[in-house]
Design a protein that fits this description.
- The complex is a heterodimer of chains A (258) and B (199).
- Chain A is mainly alpha-helical.
- Among the domains of chain A are: 49 residues, no CATH class; 62 residues, no CATH class.
- In chain A, 67% of the residues lie in helices and 0% in strands.
- The radius of gyration of chain A is 52 Å and the shape is elongated.
- Chain B is an all-alpha fold.
- Classes of the chains: A mainly alpha (258), B mainly alpha (199).
- The interface between A and B is large, with 47 and 55 residues.
């Protein structure tokens, strides 16, 4: 801009006062001289108009809203990088409560953070929800027998419940059945013959007097063999003939006596 | 207790290791810092990253803040400006928006930029036009040199006085006024050059 010589104020001074004049902080004689020069100098008038327009547009810009997670991100980035807490200088005039607060704040500063509070809250919420789902209520604690006998009883009751529950699960039952079928299918035929021979060899022992336990075992074996589709294997033919002979001889003796 | 004393007490608590005090500082100043970064860098992503970097830097250097030298707001703005200049020198944010040269959309025809800015929210249509005008001014701001841009941002967007701006920019007050004048004039010329209809 050419520096025109205008009455009252040179152009350079107008430029120096331009910011204050536009901002409204120029008053009195300076403002009057500025306006007089502006009205008489076309170049300075253009400059003032452009600067005013630029300021007007800039002032029209709204404040932008920061992202919602900005504060959280800043705290997450900085809260773990807290500078080493400087020793809190406590004046002698302060009471014990203020001193205690000063010491406590420096000690618990790393703990008393939003992140820690959030983690604690989430943990508490999770535990409470799990206990609620499991059917546990705080009020039930009053009825709990904490003596040794009561604890033992509760333990065995719980064990019984668990075992019963496990055995009654349909899936477990089906798996056991399937395993048994597979085992049966995998057993070769000669093994079955060997089992038959072994049972024949052990048959004479069956004629001996048996106790109740042995009879129960035999009955179970018989049932098992019946399930296996081989009911005739439960008792060997040899043992059957011996029994029949004994019965016949006993009948003969009875007839002679008679 | 006035504002300055309250802020100084807050800073002292923060330096002593009080996390709640730091959280309060972040809450109070993040909007201002974000706006400076946004107007200087020109994009929301860069502004978000830069704002986070500013606060990290503030955290590390908070103990160096001297209450007797300047207000905390001035110190915060100085930290922000120094970081912006560092990034600008690295060339990361040295880019000029060229979308100002694009022809405005058809719905803008018949309205001058001054008209768009004058009536901000009479109808939804006007509001949209105002938003478009703000976008144009924001893009024109990115066309200014960094020295002029930071001066007008601090003066016209952050309402700082010349003395505070001089402290932040580390230049005399006369230089501050000169940069503000040139920045405003340059902005008006950029807008006028690209949009002939500006009255």
């Amino acid at each position: 801009m050419t520096d025109h010589i205008q009455p009252g104020m040179p152009c350079a001074e107008v430029e120096a006062l331009l910011a204050e004049a536009i901002d409204g902080t120029l008053h009195g004689a300076s403002l009057a001289a500025f306006e007089a020069h502006r009205d008489s100098c076309p170049a300075c008038r253009t400059m003032v108009e452009e600067a005013s327009r630029g300021m007007h547009w800039l002032k029209g810009l709204d404040e932008v809203e920061p992202p919602r997670n900005l504060v959280h991100n800043i705290l997450a980035l900085t809260i773990g990088q807290l500078p080493e807490p400087h020793p809190v200088v406590v004046s002698r005039g302060e009471g014990w409560l203020e001193r205690l607060q000063g010491k406590a704040s420096s000690i618990f500063a790393p703990v008393v953070t939003p992140r820690f509070a959030m983690s604690l809250g989430m943990a508490f919420f999770s535990i409470t929800m799990l206990l609620s789902i499991a059917g546990f209520h705080v009020a039930d604690l009053r009825n709990v027998d904490l003596s040794a006998k009561g604890v033992t009883k509760a333990y065995y009751a719980a064990e019984t419940r668990v075992v019963r529950y496990y055995e009654n699960i349909r899936l477990v039952y089906e798996i056991e059945t399937r395993v048994r079928d597979l085992r049966r299918a995998a057993t070769p035929a000669n093994d079955q013959q060997q089992q038959q021979q072994q049972q024949q060899r052990t048959a004479p022992q069956n004629n001996q007097p048996k106790g109740d336990d042995q009879q129960d075992k035999d009955r179970r074996n018989q049932n098992y063999n019946r399930e296996m589709g081989r009911p005739s294997l439960a008792e060997s033919p040899a043992s059957s003939n011996q029994v029949m002979d004994e019965v016949n001889s006993q009948a003969r003796l009875n007839r002679r006596k008679a | 207790m006035d504002d300055a004393q309250a802020v100084n007490a807050l800073v002292r608590r923060c330096v002593a290791g009080d996390a709640a005090a730091w959280q309060e500082i972040v809450q109070q100043y993040h909007r201002r810092i974000y706006n400076i970064c946004y107007r200087f860098s020109g994009s929301t992503e860069d502004a978000s990253d830069l704002t986070q970097e500013v606060f990290i830097k503030m955290y590390r250097t908070l103990s160096t803040y001297d209450t007797s030298r300047a207000a905390f707001m001035t110190w915060v703005t100085t930290v922000t400006r120094n970081l912006l200049v560092d990034h600008f020198r690295k060339g990361k944010y040295d880019r000029v928006t060229d979308s100002l040269d694009a022809v405005p959309g058809g719905q803008d025809e018949g309205l001058t930029l001054a008209e768009k800015l004058e009536d901000p929210s009479a109808t939804p249509e006007d509001r949209m036009q105002s938003q478009q005008a703000q976008k144009l001014v924001h893009q024109a701001l990115a066309k200014l040199s960094p020295e002029l841009r930071e001066a007008v941002i601090l003066r016209d967007l952050q309402d700082m006085d010349y003395k505070e701006i001089a402290i932040v920019l580390k230049v005399p007050e006369g230089t501050v006024k000169s940069r503000i004048n040139r920045g405003r004039t340059e902005l008006a010329r950029v807008l006028q050059r690209n949009y002939r209809q500006v009255s």
